[in-house]
Amino acid sequence: MLITTKGIVLHTVKYSETSIIVRIYTEARGLQSYLFKGIRKEKAKTKAGLFQPLTLLEIVAGMKERNTLHTAREVRLFQPYLSIPFDILKSSVALYINELLYKAVREEETNNELFGYLWKSCLLLDSTENNLNCFPLVFTSELTRFLGIQPQPGFSEKKPVFNLRESHFQPLIPEKDAFVRPEYGKLFHSLIITTIENQSELHFKPEVRRSLLDSLLIYYQLHLPGFKPMNSHHILHTVLS
């Protein structure tokens, strides 16, 4: 069966001398792996460079229900990015988002809400001219809603500590070392109720952004089985500092 679907590139590996396998989060089937044959040949019509992280594609592919690897018949760039490839800040954010998605998203089924959020966020990153310092933070926080692990709001002066293991605010620091520092509790609360469209309204100091992002990634490790430690956020801290 042939299907046509939009997709977001997450990961590419070489396959034989002339082909590649690409992990793509698709609108029609969730996360899928596609074999692109002959794409590394010198005279190939479609070049392997098309499959950069977060590239927005349209794919025509043969799909067999029991297969985990599908053969792509056609592929085209659905919408080119106008600023991400040429802006060091935006490209650093894009690489971070790409790594986060590759390690966090596992759904091999249709999820229109998640796909719509990812597609919208990629376009927003490319088009926005507003402050992007909190974009990775808000994206990481809001993504939890689509993964089914959203932190629960509820900050108050009596409950200033967010327990990362239990996913709620509480009065005291927990015995186990997995919490958001009390002085950052109110800021963390404002973060988890902010949407990606309004990310520029947040203005956190570099040390706050660093601490909250590190806390969110610990939260992912605690609540997403198999989520491996990130690397790109270290570069992101440097670029955004």
Secondary structure topology:
Blueprint: E1 2-15, E2 19-26, E3 30-36, E4 56-62, E5 69-77, H1 88-104, H2 112-127, H3 135-147, E6 161-163, E7 168-170, E8 179-180, H4 185-192, H5 206-223, H6 232-240
Helix pairs in contact: 1-3, 1-6, 2-3, 3-5
How would you explain this protein's 3D organization?
By secondary structure, the chain is α+β, with helices and mostly antiparallel strands. It has 2 domains: 76 residues, Nucleic acid-binding proteins (OB fold (Dihydrolipoamide Acetyltransferase, E2P), Beta Barrel); 157 residues, Recombination protein O, C-terminal domain (de novo design (two linked rop proteins)). The protein is 34% helix and 22% strand. It has 6 helices and 8 strands, in the order E-E-E-E-E-H-H-H-E-E-E-H-H-H. The strands form 2 sheets. The chain has a 5-stranded mixed β-barrel with strand order 1-2-3-5-4. Strand 1 and strand 2 form a beta hairpin. Helix 1 runs parallel beside helix 3, helix 2 runs antiparallel to helix 3 and helix 3 packs parallel to helix 5. The longest helix has 18 residues. The relative contact order is 0.13. The mean pLDDT is 92.
